[in-house]
Specification:
By secondary structure, this protein is an alpha+beta fold. It has two domains: 83 residues, Double Stranded RNA Binding Domain, CATH 3.30.160.250; 37 residues, no CATH class. 34% of the residues lie in helices and 23% in strands. It contains three helices and four strands; from the N terminus they run βββαβαα. It has a four-stranded antiparallel beta sheet, with helices on one face. A hairpin with a 2-residue loop joins strand 1 and strand 2. The chain is elongated, with a radius of gyration of 21 Å.
Length: 125
Amino acid sequence: MLFVYPAAFHKEEDAYWVEFPDLEGCYTYGGSVNETMEAAQEALAVYLLTLLEQGKEIAAPSDISVVQVKDGFSSLVSCDINQYKDTKAVKKTLTIPSWLNDRAISMGVNFSQVLQEALLSKIQV
């Protein structure tokens, strides 16, 4: 689900911080405009997803033309909350042959990563 909100980007010395006038308490920062925009997209997504999970109402976005910034600029920030949904890790117990376990450990294999890659390949995502 795609959301687009106006944001106020403020410049302070060698960094930026951003706020969303329609979303109380939704702030973030970065060292460059690109870094700050990326952080703003993530902050917006997490903020909105939290409201949805808590069953709270999401404020409608204002028109960008009403967002005035004296020490920076305004911009629209978009996010897709679907990439943040259901990312909670789930513990799984499994059984493999002892010789396979020993060999994988000696090679420094990350079992979780291998299992995730195999499952993604199996379900063809």
